[in-house]
Every structure is written in C-alpha cells, then in structure tokens.
Amino acid sequence: KNKLDVASSIESYINQHHCTDEVAMDVLDNLVEDAWKTTNQARFDRGALLPLVNRVANLTKSMTLLFRNKVDRYTFSHGNKDRIRQQFIDPIPL
Q1: How many domains does the chain have?
Q2: Nearest 5°: CA angle at 73, between 70 and 76?
Q3: pTM for the predicted model, two decimal places
Q4: Using CA atoms, how far apart are residues 39 and 63, in angstroms rounded to an integer?
C-alpha cells in the first residue's frame, strides 16, 4: 500500500467499528448480499419501475464482481477491465 492510497472499504470499516479484518469482511459480504436480495425483491414488487430497477440490478451485479471472495477489487482493480467487458459489453448470448 502506498502513502497516497485511500483506505479500502474493509480498512474503513475496521477503523470505524474497531474490529478485526475477518469481521469486517463478513459484514461487508452480508451487506452486499442484503443489497442483492433487496434489488431482486424490487423487481417483483415494482413492475411499473422495471426499467429503472433493471439498471439498479445491473449495478448490484457489478458489486458482486468488485467485492467477491473477500477481495476488494474496487480499491485493487487489477483485472477489472476484462470483468466489466464480459458483463456489460460482451454478454453471453441466450
């Protein structure tokens, strides 16, 4: 980590709540999962807002790519360009 780097999400949570890194990672994993559940429920509850909810769902999908497997890929973004291209630019045809 360089001097000028900003704190990662995990580091910020640790500093704010004075906990271990394992606890911080588990809490952030739960927050991402809860956000995913809320977004999916909104797709069923708010049919009239489906275009907007789909955009939020796409953003939520990207969060699982950035904070998956206890790795903060938002702060340490090596390789994200290919992941973003796979998800948004070159989707798998159905």
Answers
A1: 1
A2: 115
A3: 0.52
A4: 12
